[in-house]
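Hello forum,

I keep getting stuck at the same step: I have a sequence, I want structure tokens, and every attempt I make locally crashes halfway through. Rather than fight my setup again tonight, could one of you with a working pipeline run this one for me? It's a single chain of 190 residues.
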Amino acid sequence: MNKKIVLATNNQNKLREVSAILAPLGIEVISQRDAGANCDPEENGTTFAENAVIKAKAVYETVKMPVIADDSGICVDALDGRPGVYSARYAPKGMECAKLLDEMKDIPENKRQAEFRCVIAYVDGDSEFTVEGVCRGSIGFQEQGENGFGYDPIFVYDGRTMAEMTDDEKNKISHRSMALNNLYDRLKER
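Reply #2:
Ran it on my machine without issues. Output:
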């Protein structure tokens, strides 16, 4: 498959992660800025899927090329799934991990289960669909690791935080890679 897809973001970390996963499949991923889309739609959906579709449609209307957009977050069992769809707005930028750790300070190790959830919307003018990926783990007791972004320094998978993993290790098990693999499977069926 030799295809160019616009990723509805200008976040370089996300672009790098998505590109690394899709590059071996022959898909070139470009940012919305590089595609000429200068839009930032309000993510006012109540689910990850609604927000992903809002972003994908807004960028598609500008570029008229296939677009993928994701919405993702961390869902903590002991907090009834919070912060969930509000993960990006849960705390001031850079303070998300500290706030979540503080909110969970009295929760014991055996009740700290959580999951990273990612929904990717695909829009190309002829079709529209969403796929999902989930990575189950737990919330650590402190930030650890320098690689990654967002909640990676406190999300523990198989004894290490996502921020302690290399990009290749993370890309094999992450919620985004699971969703991207599901996306590729859907695109292959076309």
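The chain has six helices and seven strands. If your local run keeps crashing, start a new thread with the error log.
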